[in-house]
Amino acid sequence: VTHRPQGGELKGLVARISGASRGNGRVFAHRFAEEGAHQMLVDVETNGLAELVEDVGHHAGGLDCHVDNEQ
After folding, report:
1. From edge to edge, which strands make up the β-sheet containing 60-64?
2. Is pTM, for the whole model, over 0.90?
3. What is d(CA 9, CA 44) in angstroms, rounded to the nearest whole number?
4. Residues contacting residue 37 through CB under 8 Å, at least 6 positions apart
5. Distance (Å, rounded) from C-alpha 31 to C-alpha 64?
6. CA–CA separation, 49 vs 44, rounded Å?
7. What is the per-residue pLDDT across 16-52, written as a single tens digit (0 to 9) for each?
8. What residue ranges in the chain does DSSP mark as E strands?
9. Concatenated DSSP letters for 34-47?
């Protein structure tokens, strides 16, 4: 990474993160929240997702779904 965002550089932008409740998705969700982004967090793990939405604050919404379902 050649450029590290400084506080608030993502303010007003919207991010969608799938697999948000675990691993890198969770890390990105917290980082984007620190930078001021609005977020739509998606995961099949509803308990972890609800906890994450609460953790990152009022600029995040959660959606539990399977993104691999072709129907």
Report:
1. 14-18, 38-43, 60-64
2. no
3. 29
4. 10, 11, 12, 13, 14, 15, 59
5. 21
6. 8
7. 999 999 999 999 999 999 888 999 999 998 889 999 9
8. 14-18, 38-43, 60-64
9. HTT-EEEEEES-HH
